[in-house]
Amino acid sequence: MLPLVSHPHTATRLANARVMWAATRFAWWWSIVDLLRRGGIESRHFYGRFYDGVTGLVTTAGSGGSFLNYGYASAGAMEPWDGDDALDPTSRASLALYRRTATDAGTFSCAGLDVLEAGAGLGGGAAWLARHERPRRMVALDVSAAAVRACRERHLPRTGLSFEHGDAQALPFVDDSFDVVLSVESSHTYPRFDDFVREARRVLRDGGLLLLADFRAAGRIERLREAIAREGFEIEVCEDVTDNVVAALRQTSAAKERRIASLALPRFVARQVAYFAGATSSEKFARFARRDDVYLRLRARKRGLASAGSQA
Questions:
Q1: CATH of 89-243+293-311, one of 3.40.50.150, 2.40.340.10, 3.40.1350.10, 2.60.40.1970
Q2: pTM over 0.90
Q3: E-assigned strand segments in the chain
Q4: What is the pLDDT of residues 135-172, one digit of tens each?
Q5: CA nearest to 101, candidates 187, 249, 212
Q6: How far apart are CA 27 and CA 70, in angstroms?
Q7: 125 and 184 Cβ atoms separated by less than 8 Å
Q8: Sign of the CA dihedral 277, 280, 282, 283?
């Protein structure tokens, strides 16, 4: 009996077919989510399926990345890199945003604390935090079952780190069980953001921190801040990092565009992937550049008697 793959060209064709199938699945769920959003309907179930598609495309295409966020850079240059991780420039920019959020721009340490991340994505941030900041417990939650499986395969075992499947709007954890809730570029997909904030407050101990980075349409920024304050948090830091995100996207776009082109995707799928990646050719980038979308980084403290963490 002949083996299934008997020739290098056959293997290449099979690999290309897998990428095309993953891209088609990504585009299908993108279209469903976009159609529902335009109709005023948003569902975490469909977002979960969409991010199943994202995970499938990233892993099948072999990008090797462990981050999905748009990144952070100074206006003039990429952030200086002092880590020992072997990262490409795009992942370095994404880690810079994650690190700035998780360490409150270098002023906060979660060493010895219990940390929950809402929206683990591909898990690179949680793995980095568990390795370099050494929290007592690092739990990373995601609504995509495929993402959770990929994170477990890629980043475990690692002491103190776990990846769990669940909804950030209904956290599957008991009250007062974490010192920090961290969320990087995830909350814009939550149809009921108020529920997430309420749940974050519930699982945080008194004095615990909500560390959040995400974007909104410019006209909805104040609503985001009001929702956080209304649920019993005091906003201590609110930093507009839109220009830094735009700088990172400018610096990483060429590599993203080359990678997308190398996949030989149908044009409409390639446009969707470019939009999702924030390539400079996309309307997503244009929205940031025009400041139609504004990107904020916040630190908010649950009102209570205790304080979370230590100052670095």
A1: 3.40.50.150
A2: no
A3: 108-109, 114-118, 137-142, 161-165, 178-184, 204-217, 233-240, 293-302, 310-311
A4: 999 999 999 999 999 999 999 999 999 999 999 999 99
A5: 212
A6: 20
A7: yes
A8: positive
